[in-house]
Sequence to fold (611 residues):
Amino acid sequence: MENIAKLENVTKIYKRYKKKEGLKGSIEGLFKREYEEKAAVLNMNLSIKEGEFIGLIGPNGAGKTTLIKMLTGIIAPTKGMIDVLGYRPNDMKNAYKKQYAVVMGQKSQLFFDLTVNDTLRLFKEIYEIQEEEFQMSKKYFSRLFGVEELMDVQVRTLSLGERMKCELIVALLHNPRILFLDEPTIGLDAIASKQIRKFLKEVNEERGTTILLTSHYMEDIKALCGRSIVINHGQLIFDGKTKELFEKYQDNKLITATFGYTVNNSILPDKAKLLLDEGYKKCLMVQKHQAKAVLEQIMGLEPEDIMIEEEEIGAVVERIYQEGAALHE
Amino acid sequence: MKKDEIKRKSAANNTWLSKARKYQRILKVLVRLRFQNLMVFRLDFLGPFFVDGSLFIIQLLIFKAIYANVDSIGSWGSGAMILYIGTFSLLNAASMTICFFGILGIPYKIRSGEMDLYLSKPVSPLFRLTFECINPGSLLLVVFSIFIIVYGAKASNCRITVHAVASYLFWLVLMAFLYYIMEVLIRSVSFYLISTTRIEQLEEALLSLCFKLPGIAMYGIYKVIFYCILPYGIMATLPVQSMLGELTWKTALQGIFVVAVFAVITALVWKKGIRHYNSAGS
Fold:
């Protein structure tokens, strides 16, 4: 696969005013201001291959959105080189802008008082799409996202999930080579998130669109992204296969055993940590490499039912971010 | 060699032409969408006709009260002053109809980070911002202003020749452009400063002053300020002077020079502003 984006030593530094407390601080600020520099992205090196579905993970303020804004040319890097599809994004060439689309979960490009079809008309002209191609794309995406009935409805009357599907149609209408998604599932319920995940997967597989997705929801990343990039404090912590990311950070397994009798805790394997104790039902957390031995011990206690699960995603995320914070310090 | 040159020129012309056509189509859609948007709320659509009409009558009454006991200002009699008021009013009304409300939104879009959505699209963000909020309600003001201009031209007893009208229209278009670039320039400051409310208030005060007082009434340092630094003083004055046959070559060249300088400054401030744009947090 061909490399379509490359970042070399990219840094973005913001300057922010540090106001001293109270009225005195405000008066002082009129004459002399103190500024502090904050590196939103620091010496980032990255490359993206055509057709990849990449998850960009990080806590709030990690630099995910800044990275997307630099890749789209909305903001310029303080230093370093960014090359996407042979363009310097901040040159703001229309030829480049025609090849990508960006969807920001908290900013809408739809006209709230009009219909989705009305908004699409404007984007048809902006992207210079031929009428026939426009009708075909509109039909394809409205069917894919299951919103055919909503195209002539006032946008303000749509639910958040429906609106996000329509935002994606607007973004995909000109068949971009790269799609930047900044928190597209933010605030959506489980069903809507799942539907959007399914559609994005199809767009990536069927159309070959390269997708860079930022999300706080690890379910999104795990379900969609073959590759994950974890950043914290503007620095790269992990860049590799999503599967490897979970293997690296998902240290524990959860074993839930139900017995036909009340089990005394003293006979449970001492390598496991007891998370739930209901007498006849025990939930244990055990390190992955000790899971086999612990399981054998529990089987020896003749349980009626046993369930082995992966550790919950929240704990994994916490561990990844903690490692990032330690690296920063 | 010549053939290649012709081919290159023809290709450049085609690119320019296709670009012009693209922008023409976008403009058409923006205007249509704006009409549709306004028509969703009937009061919003019909209200401005009444509000703008009322404001216009109030402005005329103020003007009448000020000039009731004044026979002339500088070399201008009341007819020329009526022509001046009509011209200023037309510049203001044209701006309100076409671009004012779009430009007005620039500082908010910069502060809120909404500008992201404009910068990431393959169309000039300024073009889109300029034409996305046209205000048909102000069309009534345009019509009123034209009536006042015609009445003022008759009352001033100036010779209405094809040359005078053509010259007046030329200056009117040029000054409408100056009015537009001044609006953009003031709002572009938001790229560098978070709050520009006071600058906008200054603009409002200057416009209000220049609506009542033509440039010919300004002398010394005031003339330098209102002709060159904050060129609101020339906006309606030069077209009226051209209609009255009072415009000297020197003033005309000065006027063109001021427009050119401010066009360059606005273009630079806007372009550098876009590069300076840091967006807002997600």
